[in-house]
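This is your field. Please look over both lines of this record.
***
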Amino acid sequence: MLNFEFQNPVHVLFGKGEIAKLSHLLKNKKKVMITFGGGSIKKNGVYQQVVNALEGISFVEFGGIEPNPRYETLMEAVALAKKEGVDFLLAVGGGSVIDGTKFIAQAICYEGSDPFDVYRKRLPITKAIELGSVLTLSATGSEMNMFTVVTKGKDKLGYGHPLLYPKFSIIDPTVMFSLPKKQVANGIVDAFVHVTEQYLTYPVNTPLQDRIAEGILLTLLEEGPKVMSNLEDYDARANMVWCCTMALNGIIGVGVVHDWATHGIGHELTALQGIDHGRTLAVVLPSLLRVQKDKKKEKLLQFANRVFGINESDENKAIELGIKAMEEFFHSLEVPTTLGDYGLDRSFIEEVKENLRSRQFGALGEHQDIDLEKVGLILEGAL
C-alpha cells in the first residue's frame, strides 16, 4: 500500500426530509447565495423546500449554471456574490452546479485577473467562500469531495483543493425521482467509471480498498437496473445514490494508484462535441482498457472474476469477456459505447489531438504513458 493522508470533513445528511435541516445549518450566516441550474428545482418542488428551510435567513439566488459549467456564466455569479456581500454559497443541483459553485467560491477571493488561471496553471488557493450542497442528481461525487471541473472555450479542466470541500451536503433520494432516465443512466456510468479509475491500474497490495471498490461496482450492477425500471424505488435509488457518493469521496482512492485518463480524454469529447460527460466515459473506457490491457492485466483479470464472475483460463479471453460484460452493462442502461454512435469519424480524432497539443499536453494514465499517439489509438478503437 502506498503512503497516504486522508481527511474528508463533509457533513452528510442522508435521507427523506433532510432539507428541512438547512435552517439549523445556516442559522449564523449573514447572506446566502443559492446557486442552481436550468430551473428544474422550481418545477419539482426542491426550490420551495429550500426556501421554506431558509425562513428568516437572508439569501439571493443565481440560476442558469449549465451542465459542464461555463466560465462566463460563473463569473456572472461571482459578480453578484461580491455585490451582495455573500458569505455562504448553497449549491442546489447535481455535480455541474456543485462544481460551478466551487469555482465561484475560490473566484470570489481570487486576487488576479482571471480565476480560470487557477485551473489552467494549477495555482494554489489560499481563500474560498464556504459552501454547502443540496444534491438533486447523483453522478460526480462532487457533494463529498474537493474537486471541480469547469469549461472555458475549448478547455474543460479540473482542479481540487481542500478549501473546496462542502461544509455539508444534503442527499435526499426522493428529490431525484423526477429525473429523466437518461440523466440517471449517465450518473450510474459516471460513478462506475470513477471507481475503475482508482481500481483498474496495477496491484499495490490494497485488498480492503479493492473490495470496497468491487462492492460499489457490484451494487451499481444490482441496483442500477432496478432504478431504471422504477424511478421511484426509494430503496434502490438510495443504494445507487450512496454508491455515487462513495465512488469519489476519497475512501477507495487512498494508498492506491490512480489512472484518470478516461476522464482526461472524455473531457475533450464534451468540450468539443457537447456529449454528456457520463456518456463520453462509456465511449473511452472500453477502448482504453483494451489498449492498456497488458499494463493493467492483473487488475483486469481480478475485475473480470470478482465483478462479473468470469472464470476463464485463457487470460486474454478473460480480460476481453470482462470488458464486454462492462459494455453490455452500459448498453443495458441505453448508453452508447462508440464514437460512431454520435456520428463521429476519424477526423474528430485529429481534432482532439490538436486541442490537447494546443495546451502542451504531456501524458495520462497511471504510468504517464498515454501520449498523443495512444490517445489516437484509444479513439480509433472507440470508433
Summary: The chain has a mean pLDDT of 96.
